[in-house]
Amino acid sequence: MRLDLEQKLAEEAGIMELTLFNTRTRGKEIFHPIDPANVRVYLCGPTVYDRAHIGNARNVVMFDILVRLLRKLYPRVTYVRNITDIDDKINARAKERGLSIDAVTEGPIRYYHEDMGALYALPPDIEPRATDHLGEIIDIIQRLLANGHAYEAEGHVMFAVASDADYGKFSGRSLEDLIAGARVEVAPYKRDAGDFVLWKPSSDDLPGWDSPWGRGRPGWHIECSAMSHKHLGENFDIHGGGDDLIFPHHENEIAQSCCAFPGSTFANVWVHNRMLLVNGEKMSKSLGNFKVLHDVLETAPGEAVRFLLMRAHYRSTLDFSDAGLVEARKELDRFYRALERHPGVTAAAEVPESVLAPLCDDLNTPGAIAALHALADAAMAGDAAAGASLLAAGGVLGLFNVTPKEWFEGGIDQSAINDLVNQRVAARKNKDFVESDRLRAEIAKHGVIIEDGPGGTYTLRKA
Fold first, then answer.
1. Per-residue pLDDT tens for 411-442?
2. Bridging pattern class, strands 236-242 and 39-43
3. Nearest CA to 116 among 64, 41, 49?
4. Does residue 250 contact residue 281 with C-beta atoms inside 8 Å?
5. Both 422 and 399 in a single domain?
6. Distance (Å, rounded) from C-alpha 460 to C-alpha 102?
């Protein structure tokens, strides 16, 4: 009855039906929010000990598109993306450099915000940090102990996987697989090899917090359960992350959250993006193809990087390459050329259905991009309404954030370019075409192409 009412209200409001592939059910399903007046979503954020890589960027960009789409469909969306600032890698760097963990994480957090901002990813509504949620973490651990799902052992508190009949169902792993995956963490204080840490002791030279079990620190998985519960409640709509987090991180999040709060479903829909390749191979420092996002942004506009990351469906493998980045820039050039045909055009009030429909079909970004090209064709042919629709479509995809002039001329030494252009105008006026050609080549060295028009006019665009 409730679903029928939701559908009726959606139809009356003109809301397009959204379908998403739910990792939990292993299939596409119609999205039904718990509260249509406030859709609540959570994305696993960064562990802040170093700069983000290009794989981190794909995750953020695709979830950003989902949040933008949800905000077109529903009156309110609460978007939470956490920061993991309690981690053994952070501790190791702090110890190595003789710094506090705050000093170690301050720079990476700032860089992360800068890099994701350069990709035009919207900031989350709430960005909780693990260090601010020790009380909530301890509370959930105490609940698990009281419910018989956890036990104390040698200063540790462990989650007992055998106590949860549903453990392993989310990732689809057998008990044998789970044990095999845990063998690297076998310890004498564990009852079963698959048991995982909720709390562990800290030596004097490591960061630690007081707790009922002594000075220590939380395990990784419990942090997200505490932060999502604090800001979104026992049950919320969508949880996102890369598919490398399905096991063990998300499997463990579900187990500890549902066992701490009996009757909870935790997140109703789980959205996972596939990882990416770099030049056809898995990204790895040992292969020399590890792409730090900041370094990539030094070579290409953030919007071009963003566009490349959405050219493949989020559940498909994306091959990130220099050639692909060049193609992404060329495609964006074409869209900006179409917008350039209509100076002063503003975004249409509604996103065109040709773009919205594929996005509502499990975030089919390749289908949405195909619709962008059709709009660009019409805009190039003189249809101003198509230009307005193209801009509106860009809003839900996070594209067309600058003017055509800024796109084609941005990122150059404008003063130097202006001087060279003025010299070239004078050379052409004097019919000194040899000097004119030399100056054209000089301008090109700055990454700018000058295109001559009638009557001595010209336009500039980035190479």
1. 555 667 777 888 888 888 888 888 888 888 78
2. parallel
3. 64
4. no
5. no
6. 46
Q: Which domain holds residue 253?
A: 2-273
**Placement of tokens 């292993």 in the chain:** 26
What is the distance between the alpha carbons of residues 227 and 8, in angstroms, rounded to a whole number? Answer: 34
Stretch 48-65: mean pLDDT:
95
Are 380 and 424 in the same domain? Answer: no
Same domain, yes or no, for 357 and 396? yes
CA dist., res. 411 & res. 460, Å (int): 13
Cα(first)–Cα(last) distance of the chain, in Å? 58
Residue indicated by tokens 């463990």: 252
More confident residue, 379 or 2: 379
Q: What is the pLDDT of residues 336-354, one digit of tens each?
A: 999 999 999 999 999 999 9
What token pair was written down for 244? 């490398």
